[in-house]
Amino acid sequence: MSTILAPLVRAATYARWLHLLVGAVFACVVLLVYPGTEGPLGWPAVLAVSALLDGTLLCLAALIPATRRAEGVQAALLLMPAREDAIGTASSASWADRGRTALWLVARVALGVCVALLTVHGLIAAVDLVRAGGVLLLCAPLLLVAVVYVAALAGRLQLAVAVRLLGPSAGERLAEAEARAERLLERNRLARELHDSIGHALTVSVLQAGAAREVADPVFREKALEAIETTGRRAMEDLERMLVLLRDHPDGPAVEHPGLDRVEVLFETARAAGSPVEARIEVAGSRLPGVLSREAYRIVQEGVTNALKHVPGTPVRVHAGTADGLLHLSCATALPAAPQAGARRSGGKGLRGIRERAALLGGEAVAGPVDGDWVVRVRLPLRLGS
After folding, report:
1. What is the Cα–Cα distance from 282 to 262, expressed in whole angstroms?
2. pTM of the prediction?
3. Of 39, 76, 37, 32, which is closest to residue 54 (Cα–Cα)?
4. Which of 92, 68, 76 is nearest to 172 (CA)?
5. How far, in Å, CA of 79 to CA of 86, rounded?
6. C-alpha distances in Å from residue 330, one per residue of 118, 242, 275, 335
7. Is the distance from CB of 67 to CB of 92 less than 8 angstroms?
8. Ranges 140-154, 253-267, 339-353: which has the least confidence
9. I need a surface site. Which of 6, 23, 100, 258 has the fewest CB within 10 A?
10. Number of alpha helices (DSSP H) and beta strands (DSSP E) in the chain
11. With contact defined as beta carbons under 8 Å apart, do 92 and 104 qualify?
12. C-alpha to C-alpha distances, 17 to 79, 108, 144, 155, 156, nearest whole angstrom
């Protein structure tokens, strides 16, 4: 019973009814201006001329790009679609959009005229039944309820037409899908950077704290605490930078990403944690495209972090250079004793992150044991790193 009576009490019924009547107002105004209700022409001719004039004016209005936006905003407000994005609110961007807008305007006015005629004649008939009195008086409410139900059905039809003709075009849906994909990729990139930065800081801090606890030398402890403080501050800066990007504040300060030129600071942190680093950096980060320099830094950072995590105290050999249009990166450490070697061969989030970064830049990353060492090699094309 509640389902049957729902159209009578639903706000959407009357909002859509109003939208239909607004469309009929346009046709009434045109009819009054020309050809008018008085003259030698009969009603069939008057209606034919008025319909032709209405269609012409509506098609001309549809040529204006902003018309589609205005109709979309009005339809989204009064027709109350189930999803906010079901009806587009963008201006016409192509002739196909203008054509669909013209069809919408004609359909809206035509359906609005039909509903307006039904509404007027229904009200007149209900008043006549009330005046007649007697048993016919009881039929007046039933007639009004029938008019409301017909208006509700017409409103649903109007909504379906609006979704079909004013909904986002294929180009708009593609652009929105691309925008969502870009936002997702950006969030994934930020997540990887945050994982690399915080993971490196925690690894160094844990190693430094453990070493300071084992060594009684106060000078060593002082250096260890200083390294922990420096690493923590750097991690906090990275975290703040990520939060600025996630908030997407257009007026915020310029955000600086660490590049390959800053790897020496990374190596000093590793050395302070007790792992000697032998580095051969044969390419200047400033001469690399920005995105390539940043991703190279993160790859080297992840390689050094893995070495500190799995084989602390073991020398780390890092090389970066260019050859044959490629940026070559490598990070080598001694293989840990069993059973840790099996864990290294299985890979983890760090190695997976390196491979993802390399794949996004069109390169490749391989890792595995070589002559008693665990070696990570990455090749990135220079021409794609922009």
Report:
1. 14
2. 0.53
3. 32
4. 92
5. 11
6. 79, 27, 17, 15
7. yes
8. 339-353
9. 6
10. 12, 5
11. no
12. 9, 12, 14, 6, 10
**Mean of the pLDDT values across residues 97-108?**
94
**Rounded to the nearest 10 degrees, what angle do helices 65-78 and 43-62 cross at?**
110
- CA-based nearest residue to 54, from 108, 91, 98: 108
Give the helix/strand (H/E) hosting 329.
strand 326-334
Give the pLDDT band (50/70/90) at residue 287: confident
Q: What is the pLDDT of residues 32-65, one digit of tens each?
A: 888 777 766 677 888 888 889 999 999 999 999 9
Q: What's phi and psi for 128, nearest 5 deg?
A: -65, -40
How much of the chain is in helix, strand and coil states, percent to nearest 5?
70, 10, 20
pLDDT band at 178; cut points 50, 70, 90:
low
DSSP for 259-312, written as a single string:
-GGGHHHHHHHHHHTT--EEEEE-S-GGGS-HHHHHHHHHHHHHHHHHHHHHST
Distance between CA 297 and CA 260 in Å, rounded? 5
Contact 80, 16 (CB under 8 A): yes
For 362, other C-beta atoms within 10 Å of its C-beta total 12
| Residue-wise burial string across 256-286, b where 16 or more C-beta atoms lie within 10 A, e elsewhere | ebbbbebbeebbebbebbbbebebebebebe
pLDDT bucket at 354, cuts 50 / 70 / 90: confident
Q: pLDDT per residue over 226-276, tens digit each?
A: 777 777 777 777 676 666 666 654 444 444 567 888 888 888 878 877 788
Output DSSP code: residue 63: T
Query: Are 49 and 35 within 8 A, CB to CB?
Result: yes
